[in-house]
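Researcher: Sequence recovery benchmark, item below. Answer with residues only.
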């Protein structure tokens, strides 16, 4: 799998929604031993633990209608092929494959239980500072 400074190297990355992202990240670090990896404005903070990672994400009042406060991100080698297979199997596609300035090509879908999944392919190694991220730690 390609390396990109803008995303943790973990294959599976839970994304957890919080009303106060910075407060949640600080608490997860203090209570569970996570380390901040990358801040993305005030709405996302990537956290590391060993070779694993989670993302604390904004689930504020504007997202109150969301059924779930979490999703799962999975890094794949070929997001377009993965998307085609998921769609053929009946996954509900929320967002089609899209390339982003942070060096990832991603799509999102829900599974048969209504769980949200985002599949991400690294397409470039991008310095987080170039798109507004603030790298806190590096491996």
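Model:
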């Amino acid at each position: 799998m390609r390396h990109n400074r803008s995303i943790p190297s973990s294959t599976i990355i839970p994304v957890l929604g919080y009303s106060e992202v910075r407060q949640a990240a600080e608490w997860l670090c203090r209570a569970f031993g996570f380390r901040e990896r990358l801040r993305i404005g005030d709405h996302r903070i990537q956290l590391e633990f060993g070779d694993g990672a989670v993302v604390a994400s904004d689930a504020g009042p504007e997202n109150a209608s969301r059924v779930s406060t979490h999703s799962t991100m999975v890094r794949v080698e070929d997001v377009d092929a993965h998307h085609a297979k998921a769609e053929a199997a009946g996954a509900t596609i929320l967002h089609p494959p899209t390339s982003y300035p942070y060096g990832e090509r991603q799509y999102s879908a829900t599974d048969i239980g209504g769980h949200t999944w985002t599949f991400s392919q690294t397409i470039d190694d991008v310095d987080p500072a170039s798109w507004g991220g603030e790298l806190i730690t590096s491996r």
